[in-house]
Design brief:
The chain is α/β, with parallel strands linked by helices. It has one domain: Thiamin diphosphate (ThDP)-binding fold, Pyr/PP domains (Rossmann fold, 3-Layer(aba) Sandwich), CATH 3.40.50.970. 37% of the residues lie in helices and 15% in strands. The chain has an 8-stranded mixed sheet, with helices on both faces. A two-stranded antiparallel sheet has the order 5-6. The longest helix has 22 residues. The two termini are 27 Å apart. The relative contact order is 0.12.
């Protein structure tokens, strides 16, 4: 579906408390259009809990429950069960969490909900840090990135959450990015029509956390995909399909752009270029992405 043909109804309203250039707001707007007004959101501690705006006002035109950091999937399970007991099976229940509340603090509740077969959509908007609490490293933070708790650059590679989710063998899982709204919309609509647990992860480049200018949010998302730092794919009943440019990269119909083209525009990697270029660590990042894509090819070609 072309952007011009997306639903006109807006459930994400003006006046939110988001930062300028915030990727979460882009993702929320498309999510609400895809899922419609008959949706209930469960939001743990994260940027979105602030974006909603201060009581008694809100920028979300759908019912929303805020819950503890670790409990998004557990809360969603309770909401879904309660609605089901009332016979309201047409309401879409969504747990909406950041990478901190997904990769780290909330992973136990998420795994439990997937194991139980909870009929909900779990959406992780991944900005690769604990942005709301001061830009600390998370399990999604890439190797070499500066955060307030990795001031010399993170020394570990990010967790492969997509592979952890696939190990649960749920009906549907997908990765998308705010720079590709049509891809995001299509995957959300598909997830809405599938019964059982669904997981969608959205790459969400954060201007203050990644240290780039606010007008470059979409560009940073596009480059994440073009350099292979992030892949667009979906998994339906264990069958993996890569989408868009990620499919072309997988099939070697186009070459990945060098990772340096992406990280050099982000202040969180500035220490890899100043006072002099850290060739070794930049190559370590490139080699790791090469390894990931070779693993993709072995499994899915």
């Amino acid at each position: 579906m072309a952007i011009k043909n997306l639903p006109r109804e807006e459930c994400y309203l003006p006046g939110s408390a988001a930062c300028p250039g915030c990727p979460a707001t882009m993702a929320l707007r498309i999510t609400f259009k895809a899922l419609g007004k008959n949706t209930m959101m469960i939001v743990p501690a994260c940027c979105t809990a602030v974006i909603e705006s201060l009581h008694p006002h809100t920028s979300f035109d759908i019912p929303t429950m805020n819950i503890a950091f670790e409990a998004a999937a557990a809360g969603a399970s309770g909401v879904e069960a309660g609605l089901r007991m009332q016979g309201k099976t047409d309401t879409t229940v969504v747990a909406w969490a950041g990478d901190g509340g997904t990769y780290d603090i909330g992973i136990q509740a998420l795994s439990g909900a997937l194991e139980r077969g909870t009929n909900f959509i779990y959406i992780c908007y991944n900005n690769e840090i604990y942005s709301n609490t001061g830009i600390q490293r998370s399990g999604a933070t890439p190797y070499g990135a500066w955060t307030t708790t990795t001031v010399g650059g993170k020394t570990e590679f990010r967790k492969e959450m997509g592979e952890i989710i696939q190990a649960h063998h749920i009906p549907y899982a997908a990765q998308t990015c705010i720079a590709y709204p049509e891809d995001m919309y299509k995957k959300l609509v598909k997830a809405k029509g599938i019964k059982g647990p669904k997981y969608i992860e959205i790459m969400a480049p954060c201007p203050p956390g990644w240290r780039f200018s606010m007008e470059k949010t979409v560009e940073m998302g596009t480059m994440a995909v073009e350099t292979g730092a992030w892949a667009l794919y979906e998994v339906e009943n264990d069958k993996v399909t890569f989408n868009g440019k990620s499919k072309l990269i997988l099939e070697k119909k186009i070459e990945r752009k060098p990772i340096e083209d992406w990280i050099k525009h982000q202040g969180r990697f500035r220490h890899l270029f100043k006072p002099k270029k850290d060739v070794k660590r930049i190559k370590t990042i490139e080699d790791h992405i090469d390894l990931i894509w070779e693993r993709y090819r072995k499994r899915h070609l």
